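Q: I have 326 residues here and want to know how they pack in 3D. Can you give me a structure?
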Amino acid sequence: MGNLGELSPYEAKDAAGFVESMRQLKALSGRTYRELEERAARNGDVLARSTLADILRRTNLPRPDLLAAFVRACGDERRVGAWLDARDRIAAGVTAGSATAPDPGPDGGNVADEVPPRTAEPTAGEPMAGEPAAPRPRRSRGRTAALVAALVLPLLAIAAWGLLPHGSDGPGTASGAVPDGWVTVRPVRTPDLCLTDGRDRKGAYASAVAVQLPCARSTVPRTYLEPVGEDLYRIQWHHPEEGKGCLTVMGPGPVRGMLEPRNDCTHATLFRLEAGPAGGTEGVRIRPVTGSRCIGIADDLTTEGAEAIEERCTGGADQRFLVRAD
């Protein structure tokens, strides 16, 4: 096995380059398609070698769940979050990383010896035969939109956060500001309340969602902040009866945008915790990596039982949280 750490997923500038990086990762792993399929199964993932072969000979982005399974099977478990983040940046039309394109060329594996041939190539963007539909929609923007974003977003960041002193990490990273492991997550405005297990106020959903309740009465479930690389985190809840669940932003439905603990942490939402500049606003912003929105408190409420919800970033105090070691 080669040195997987020498390959950065952020070097890719487009979908074709990203798939080329995946081919390089496979080559560095030293594993055949069959071995990757078997290792994925041991990890609890599903990664058919025929599906993987299709992904690596195409030039469009893989589904996030297949990418995560592939990276783990290659032995790069610690950087799954980085690979997912790099993929989402390209899907959003925002390139990142080195300006040097990865070296062209296949990984040298003989796919034909290991994988049954396919009679037709699926249309780009469609799920492959035998696969479920993608769990979340892809985002696409034109080249003009990407250029506008590249020019405007840095200006917006400066306006929102102010000029940063030399040596500051700045927004987009919580390095040195957030403890991982067992924590409590408290809205800045109501530090006696914690995000914990509750129900939506309208009673529209039968399962638990994240709400703010008094910390003294919210000892179950316990919250665990799991770092997954590149300043990305999963927010786990550990319940003595329900087991482990990871907070996931809900899709369309009666509790759209709220956070539900899901048992399948592999497909849970990854969050980026953004600290303000030194000496600036207290707390951190919690942002799902697959968009440009923030986690806040529904209707800007400070009352018990108000739900945490994904919403447009406003810079308001209701979108800032204290993460304290528990």
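Q: Anything worth noting?
A: Confidence is low (pLDDT under 50) at residues 95-176. Residues 167 and 196 are 35 Å apart (CA to CA).
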